[in-house]
Design a protein that fits this description.
6 helices, seven-stranded parallel beta sheet, 2 domains, five-stranded mixed beta sheet, binds S-adenosyl-L-homocysteine, alpha/beta
Length: 235
């Protein structure tokens, strides 16, 4: 599987289907990777597994592929949601890329008392997540939810999904790989306020977790927490 270019497309995949890729994907294959009609590419769409395809047309801004044969069926992936206090643009970009590689199933940006950002650019982050999914051989691209206040996140959180809250200086043990659905919550650079910590402690589905004695940047904490949660899962 190594060396083969993989592209995400929202189009349904089946033998004989035609897929029109995005202009950015056309640029990537034609100009950056120097591919040509007749060359193979692999496709996935988050639903139909991975497929072998051939380039049938590749010009400036245009990439058309024909789906040939299945490579592997859609398979379960870790159902780990990442809730994170919204960061500045570059840090959020990095976080989305790395968390996608680490298997995050969905992103929940959170607004907290000490959060200094309020908006995301969903298209930009979706493109970053898609690229990271292509490169890491995932079969899905994680979804990005609109930002919401911490209280609203907790209010709507499904009861059957344990939420591991990364709390520095808490003395809490690190998260163990959880089976089934789970979530990781990471706070802002300024940390959670006492009121927010009280709110978290009041929720039965929240478990505090520690990530070692050092104080990590929020994006580092996301990566460290996800690494622990997913590394020994089979999915
Ligand atoms: N300003 C705060 C640190 C915030 S670090 C202070 O100086 O105390 C940003 C976020 O990363 C925190 O809210 C927490 O969710 C997470 N984090 C950082 N280091 C951590 C650690 N050692 N264990 C668990 N979570 C950590």
């Amino acid at each position: 599987m190594s060396g083969s270019i993989r592209l995400f497309t929202p189009t349904a995949l089946a033998a004989g289907a035609t897929v029109d890729a995005t202009p950015a994907q056309a640029h990537y294959l034609g100009t950056v990777m120097r591919r040509a009609p007749g060359d193979p590419v692999r496709l996935f769409n988050g639903r139909d597994g991975e497929w072998q395809a051939l380039i049938v047309d590749l010009r400036r801004g245009t990439l058309r592929l024909r789906v040939e044969a299945p490579v592997r069926p859609q398979a379960p992936e870790p159902d780990i949601w990442l809730a994170f206090a919204l960061l500045k643009r570059d840090a959020t970009d990095l976080l989305v890329r790395q968390a996608t590689e680490l298997g995050a199933a969905a992103f929940w940006p959170v607004l907290t008392a000490r959060t200094n950002a309020a908006r995301v650019n969903p298209e930009r982050l979706a493109a970053i997540a898609a690229e990271a999914a292509e490169q890491s051989e995932r079969l899905t691209v994680p979804g990005m939810h609109p930002p919401r206040p911490l209280a609203a996140l907790l209010q709507g959180w499904p009861a059957g999904r344990p939420l591991f809250a990364a709390l520095e200086r808490s003395g809490a043990p690190p998260p163990a790989a959880a089976e089934g659905p789970s979530g990781l919550l990471v706070g802002p650079e300024g940390g959670f306020t006492e009121a927010e910590l009280d709110l978290l402690r009041s929720r039965p589905f929240v478990t505090p977790v520690g990530l070692g004695p050092r104080i990590l940047r929020a994006e580092t904490a996301c990566v460290a927490g996800l690494a622990l949660l997913q590394a020994s899962r089979p999915d």
